[in-house]
Inverse folding.
């Protein structure tokens, strides 16, 4: 199961890279809107899949919380 999920994560990641590269090319407004929508969908799917499989929080601590303690 993990192998299948890792393959899906890899596929979403590859699609995201491809859409970002396409956004750097000359596109019509309709093409750009389509690619931006697909990019957003891929990012959402990747985040959901990663959250489902990896329950680790990789967010950075907020600056106010990081500065509230005493420094060594």
């Amino acid at each position: 199961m993990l192998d299948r999920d890792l393959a899906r994560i890899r596929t979403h990641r590859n699609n995201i890279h491809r859409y970002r590269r396409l956004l750097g090319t000359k596109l019509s407004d309709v093409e750009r809107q389509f690619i931006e929508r697909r990019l957003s969908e891929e990012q959402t799917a990747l985040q959901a899949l990663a959250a489902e499989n990896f329950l680790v929080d990789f967010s950075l601590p907020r600056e106010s919380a990081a500065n509230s303690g005493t420094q060594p």
